[in-house]
Amino acid sequence: MPRMCVRLVVAFLLVMLAAGGLTLAEETGFSGGVGLEITFIPIPPLSYDIEADLTLSLSIACFTFESETVFALTGFQSQEFDVEVDLGAVSIAEEIIFDPYFSWNQLSVDALIIAVETGLDLILADIGIGTQSPSYSMGAVLELSSGVMSGFSITTLTGFGAIDLVNVLGGVEAPFSHNLLDLFSYLDSLFAPQFTPRVTIVPGFYFEEEFVRLEVDYCGLLSSSSTWLDWTGFAKEVFEFGYQFEEPSLSFLTAMTFDNSFSISGLDFILDLEICGVQFTSWTSFTAPQTPSVLPIVFSGQRFAVSFEVFGVLVTAETDFDGTFLFERQLLAIEAEIEPVAFTSLTAFDKTGFSGEWIKAQVRFSGVTLYTLAAFDFGGVIEVSFGFELAF
């Protein structure tokens, strides 16, 4: 507990320094921010944990620095540093992570040369997490992308000692499906912890994976092809084809996934309609059966999402049905803002009834944001957080 008190005092001093930096920021032109979040987590039956998350960001001219430090009652948990220098046609970034010991160091260099974007990521990672002694391995990812022709783009990723290369693109396997399913993604991330997808480093600095993506978005036509290759050859393919109308805003898309035997392992039908301020999305999924079947794919689920605004209140809802078309999950999000106060709630139901509730309230004034968040389920409180963010 004395250590925690010292850390909180240090955090308070940082806040005071940041507050004093408001005047300095106006004089020198740099910007930044500082934030502190304290989370109380009950541990049944009679214990608890307290976690403190301190964030700091600074930006001046072409230089950006970000830091995130996490402490708990048991001590130091993690530390992440991000540094980026943007020189126009070339940018250099460095990321270092300790959790709590050294686990990740990534150096990224990106350049734009005659409409061709090139990038190189050099990564040193501890792949022996959870063992008594660390095990370090190197990985590299080479990225080439271009969009010379209107509506057409190509991206290639080559991994040496690295797999899961699609995480370089945010983990998005089907780009147009991801865009049309934004309501589902929004609800899933509304109160979920934010994690940056990263490639996976494996032992040995050898060729491991090649990823190639082609995209076409021209005159309403939507099409993409994402192909995975490994050292044995073809590994996976995701193909999309659809069309998008402007008035009213109507999109429909078919996405097919093929495995390494060129058999269909997944099939999605997506319909997205937006009219009179109401957005509606339907997502029908088929997948390969778990048991032997005469059918290559079987129905696996149906999901509906709708979003609309009434009297300044944004309502977003999602309803899921499983492979037998029985009710599986219901999400309902309500967001309202009356300057300077904002309120957000998310309620979840499953087959047994109420399963969870998340509530957040915040107030903004003079570049400062104060907020509190509470989460609970049928058994009681899951966690309670409060914090602030100061921008200067």
The gist of it:
The chain is mainly beta and 392 residues long. It has helices at residues 2-28, 175-180, 182-189, and strands spanning 31-43, 47-60, 63-72, 75-86, 90-98, 102-113, 116-126, 136-146, 152-160, 162-163, 200-201, 207-218, 221-230, 233-245, 249-258, 264-275, 278-287, 298-310, 313-321, 327-338, 341-350, 353-365, 368-377, 380-391. It contains three helices and 24 strands.
Overall average pLDDT: 90
What portion of the residues fall into strands of 2 or more residues?
over 45%
User: What string gives the helices and strands in order?
Assistant: HEEEEEEEEEEHHEEEEEEEEEEEEEE
Number of helices, counting only DSSP H or I runs of 4 residues or more: 3
Q: Structural class of the helices, strands and pairings? A: mainly beta
Coarse shape: globular
The protein's oligomeric status is single chain
What is the distance, rounded to the nearest whole angstrom, between the alpha carbons of the first and last residues?
32 Å
Rg, alpha carbons: 24 Å
Spans of at least 5 consecutive residues with low confidence: 1-25
Helix content estimate: 10-25%
Q: What can be said about the biggest beta sheet?
A: 22 strands, antiparallel, barrel
How is the topology of this model organized?
Layout: H1 2-28, E1 31-43, E2 47-60, E3 63-72, E4 75-86, E5 90-98, E6 102-113, E7 116-126, E8 136-146, E9 152-160, E10 162-163, H2 175-180, H3 182-189, E11 200-201, E12 207-218, E13 221-230, E14 233-245, E15 249-258, E16 264-275, E17 278-287, E18 298-310, E19 313-321, E20 327-338, E21 341-350, E22 353-365, E23 368-377, E24 380-391
Antiparallel strand pairs: 1-2, 1-24, 2-3, 3-4, 4-5, 5-6, 6-7, 7-8, 8-9, 9-12, 10-11, 12-13, 13-14, 14-15, 15-16, 16-17, 17-18, 18-19, 19-20, 20-21, 21-22, 22-23, 23-24
